[in-house]
Design brief:
The complex is a heterodimer.
Chain A lengths: L2 H16 L5 H10 L9 H24 L6 H25 L5 H25 L6 H19 L2 H17 L14 H6 L16 H26 L7 H16 L5 H4 L7 H17 L5 H11 L3 H19 L3 H7 L4 H6 L5 H25 L6 H18 L4 H30 L4
Helix pairs in contact in A: 1-2, 3-5, 4-5, 5-6, 5-7, 6-7, 7-9, 9-10, 10-12, 10-13, 10-14, 12-17, 13-17, 15-17, 17-18, 18-19
Chain B lengths: L2 H31 L1 E8 L4 E2 L3 E5 L1 E2 L3 E3 L11 E8 L5 E7 L7 E11 L2 E5 L4 E3 L5 H11 L6 E8 L2 E9 L2 E2 H9 L1
Antiparallel strand pairs in B: 1-4, 1-11, 2-3, 3-10, 5-9, 6-7, 6-8, 8-9, 11-12, 12-13
Classes of the chains: A mainly alpha, B alpha+beta.
């Protein structure tokens, strides 16, 4: 449950008490158990505060864009620094007031200061006709805003930072960047947010919005790093994009396996975007790899990928995360993440790898589909609907590739559709039975 | 209130001032103490969402000769020595990997090098203008850029740094001409 769920529950308690649904003791127990963290702003507060700050900041930048060249240089510089100074004083006041400041005021102050910092740098570069590239500007703007995330515990500045470093990483893929100015430093930039929570146990759980933004930022940043590493390794020669594609699959496996504390394992999927997005990519890759004409390209890509050091980094991290997942008994996640490793198993077969790989992937996906269903029926954490959907997609893919007549294919699709719907109905009934009180 | 967040906040606030102030310091030094160099240019009227309208300034000289024995790669920083001709316009007379001991020079990036030539990426490319003057500036630029006199970029140069100070036509400042045209 996140903060907004706790707030909703606490709002309902007096009504339920009044209606006699809950006793006073039960309501007190619930109040003690579901304390709303006042330091965590609600989504509406963040949005409103951030919008206000964003409008003021954008207004300042637009006024700067007009270019007041009737004024002397020193006067224009005062215009650049005055909003920054005022926003810093506002933030200082908010910090000194501590808990007395409302959460949305803290968010607004932090975001406004971050935007005023960008506006100040932009105005100075306008006054002196400095050229400079957008990624350089963005990089320094993000770094100068990052500490505000730590000291003001600002989610909106954290979101700005995550979007900024992802955008910067994508820009830096191209060109001849040394490693320290390339997307390879994205993991370090991401770690810069660590003091926001802080601690490995996630004592201060991240909001769902922040988790999604962080996951999407990580996907962009890490995929950019993989692409850059491959380009540099093969000296920017053409024909190695398949290597990058496989590294992206490894990145998805790494994200899906990302260690979670025990308490977070029971969260709904919505709160684990890294698992949802990782699964989607891995399964899509798995299904594509089952087509017979994909074997040759994939086998070649995996052979070449071993030469790239970034692949070894990804494999090393996946291995460490997999050990953690075994300890936590995350079998469903482990089974889907293993799709990324299937092409490696095929390589053991040497020259026949390209012919065997699509069949091996078909077998692997079928086993995953069955495992995800069986886990649920043996009392473990499974994903039966996902397993059934995977089996359906596999059969449909094989149908497309087969030489069967249109009539046969049509009938087969109808049978699969009916079976899938029947399974869905069975699962819904089973779930309802579990929820009913036992006599 | 704990002291550490306040200390970090103070450091951030200082850093947020220091970054633009250091830019101001180096560019003010160049503007006040640098040598005035004039470069003939060629260009249009683009827009930067953060900094407003600007004229894209491209000096006419796009490549320079590479001295024998000097191997340059794309992205390498080199020092370009500038020499003024009889018409008062400067051109790059030589390239070196270290700053020359005499004369005016600026640090530039090598675009790409081939045989004995290298293309140059100049360290200035934008001249920001008032939004109201921008449409007129665009017309003025289009009318004069291909003229025999051409538009001249006035650049202050000091210790390898260059700051674009003004644009001029026939010895008259670009801003003066524009204000007359807008009246």
């Amino acid at each position: 449950m996140n903060t907004s769920h706790h707030r909703w529950l606490l709002e309902q308690l007096p009504k339920w008490e009044g209606e006699g649904i809950l006793t006073t003791d039960a309501a007190r127990t619930l109040r003690e158990r579901h304390v709303a963290d006042a330091s965590q702003p609600g989504a509406a507060q963040i949005i409103m505060g951030s919008l206000g700050a964003l409008l003021i900041g954008t207004g300042l930048i637009t006024i700067i864009g007009f270019n007041w060249d009737d004024f002397s240089r020193p006067v224009r510089l005062v215009f650049a620094f005055l909003p920054l100074l005022l926003s810093q004083l506002f933030s200082l006041r908010v910090m000194l007031r501590g808990e007395a400041s409302a959460a949305w005021v803290r968010e607004t102050a932090a975001l406004l200061q971050a935007l005023c910092t960008g506006a100040c740098i932009a105005l100075v570069s306008q006054i002196y006709n400095l050229g400079g590239e957008w990624p350089d500007f963005l990089f320094w703007w993000c770094l100068l805003s990052l500490p505000l995330v730590w000291v003001m515990k600002s989610s909106s500045v954290a979101i700005f930072y995550l979007i900024g470093i992802a955008e910067w990483s994508i820009h830096q893929v191209w060109g001849h960047q040394p490693w320290h100015a390339s997307p390879m430093i994205y993991p370090l930039l991401l770690l810069g947010l660590f003091p926001f929570w802080p601690g490995w146990k996630l004592d201060r759980p991240l909001s769902t919005t922040l988790r999604w933004v962080m996951t999407i930022s990580a996907i962009c940043g890490l995929c950019a790093a993989a692409h850059h590493a491959t380009r540099m390794h093969f000296a920017e020669s053409w024909g190695h994009f398949d290597v990058t594609l496989w590294q992206w699959v490894l990145t998805s496996a790494m994200l899906a396996l990302f260690p979670l504390p025990s308490a977070a394992l029971d969260d709904t999927s919505r709160h684990k975007p890294q698992v949802i997005l990782g699964f989607l990519h891995l399964l899509q890759f798995g299904v594509v790899a089952t087509f017979l004409d994909m074997g040759q390209e994939l086998a070649k890509a995996v052979r070449e990928a071993w030469q790239v050091p970034w692949t070894w980094v990804l494999i090393g991290v996946i291995a460490a995360f997999a050990v953690h997942a075994v300890i936590r008994r995350r079998w469903a996640v482990l089974s889907v993440a293993s799709i990324a490793i299937t092409p490696v198993l095929a390589l053991v077969l040497g020259e026949t790898a390209q012919a065997v790989l699509p069949w091996l992937m078909t077998l692997h996906l079928s086993l995953i589909g069955i495992t995800l269903i069986v886990l649920e029926f043996t009392g473990r954490r499974g994903a039966p609907r996902l397993g059934a959907a995977l089996l359906c997609v596999l059969i449909i893919a094989r149908m497309f590739e087969s030489e069967l007549s249109l009539l046969t294919k049509g009938l087969a699709f109808i049978v699969i559709g009916v079976a899938f719907l029947a399974f869905n109905i069975c699962m819904s009934r089973l779930a309802r039975q579990k929820q009913l009180p036992q006599p | 209130m704990k002291a550490l967040p306040l200390v970090i906040f103070a450091m951030v606030a200082l850093a947020q001032w220091a970054a633009p102030l250091s830019q101001i310091w180096t560019h003010e030094q160049t503007l006040t103490q640098g040598t005035l160099i004039k470069l003939k240019c060629s260009a249009p009227d683009p827009y930067d969402p953060l900094r407003g309208r600007y004229l894209a300034v491209r000096p006419e000289q796009r490549e320079a000769s590479v001295p024998a024995g000097l191997k340059l790669e794309s992205g390498t920083h080199v020092y370009a020595t500038l020499t003024s001709g009889a018409d008062g316009l400067a051109t790059i007379s030589s390239l070196s990997l270290t700053p020359p001991t005499s004369g005016d020079y600026i640090r530039v990036n090598v675009g790409y090098a081939y045989e004995s030539k290298a293309t140059i990426e100049w360290p200035f490319e934008r001249f920001y203008i008032n939004e109201k003057l921008a449409p007129e500036a665009d017309k003025w630029f289009a009318e004069n850029i291909r003229g025999t006199k051409g538009i001249i970029a006035e650049v202050r140069v000091l210790n390898g740094r260059a700051v674009l100070a003004d644009l001029s036509l026939d010895g008259r400042s670009f801003r003066e001409i524009l204000k007359e045209r807008v009246k």
